[in-house]
Design a protein that fits this description.
Helices cover 51% and strands 19% of the residues. The protein contains 9 helices and 8 strands. The radius of gyration is 17 Å and the shape is globular. Bound molecules: 2'-deoxycytidine-5'-monophosphate. 2'-deoxycytidine-5'-monophosphate (DC) binds next to helix 2, helix 4 and helix 8. The site of 2'-deoxycytidine-5'-monophosphate (DC) has 14 residues, from helix 2, helix 4 and helix 8.
Length: 226
């Protein structure tokens, strides 16, 4: 079974995907982490445009399940770099939408993602999974929540690591990213026509998981071999 989960930042995609992956025995692939890894490389090595494309084309992005947390690493010229923490900084968050709007980068990452999805038993989250990466996914979900709820979730997460960060800063960054992700020309953030939309505002994690499980069960009851 392949599950595609799309939605804006802070809508709960990664939290929900990790739980469902465990419950259903699927491999979780966080495609946002792949775009974040590209943004990190761009900032760290001052690489842009074709030079960044060249680097990413020759690198491998790997996911490793490590006791509940997912570690993200990049393999480049025989060396492996653990980027798990580095891709979550406010600097990378501020840069990532610009990198994700670059057609050349999207082309490479979409190809890598389609390849990963061909393993079949995956739950993949992002912005264009149901529309572009796995348009034939058996289950498609679009998560959403009010901008205030999403900002509060992100703020609570970030506050632990960056005590000086302000709520307004987090909300501002989230809104800017929403706008770039929705307006970009290639593979914008969009609900697939056949996706089930869930507004997670005010819902607990368990309630959202149950809602998605209903869709999975419905498909199974309808005789779909998933
Ligand atoms: O889910 P996230 O916040 O970690 O995603 C980081 C950025 O990557 C976000 O601004 C949108 C972009 N992204 C994308 O364009 N396509 C995807 N499939 C996943 C993420």
């Amino acid at each position: 079974m392949r599950i595609a989960i799309d939605g804006p930042g802070g809508s709960g995609k990664s939290t929900i995907s990790k739980i469902l992956a465990k419950k259903l025995g699927l491999i979780y692939i966080d495609t946002g982490a792949m775009y974040r890894a590209c943004a990190y490389v761009s900032l760290r090595f001052d690489l842009h445009g074709d030079a960044l494309k060249e680097f990413i084309n020759n690198a491998e992005i790997d996911f490793l399940q490590d006791d509940g947390t997912q570690r993200v690493s990049m393999l480049f010229q025989g060396s492996e770099y653990d980027l798990t923490e580095a891709i979550r900084t406010p600097q990378v968050s501020a840069k990532v939408s610009e990198v994700a709007a670059d057609k050349r980068i999207r082309e490479i990452l979409t190809k890598k993602q389609k390849n990963l999805a061909s393993r079949k038993n995956v739950i993949m989250d992002g912005r264009d999974i149901g529309t572009v990466v796995i348009p034939d996914a058996e289950v498609k979900i679009f998560l959403n929540a009010s901008v205030d709820e999403r900002s509060h979730r992100r703020y609570t997460e970030l506050k632990e690591k960056y005590p000086d960060i302000s709520y307004d800063e987090v909300k501002d960054d989230l809104m800017k990213r929403d706008e770039t992700d929705i307006k970009r020309e290639t593979a914008p953030l969009l609900k697939a026509e056949d996706a089930v939309e869930i507004d997670t505002t005010g819902l607990s994690v368990e309630e959202v998981v149950q809602e998605i499980m209903k869709t999975v069960k419905k498909k199974r009851a309808a005789g779909e071999n998933i």
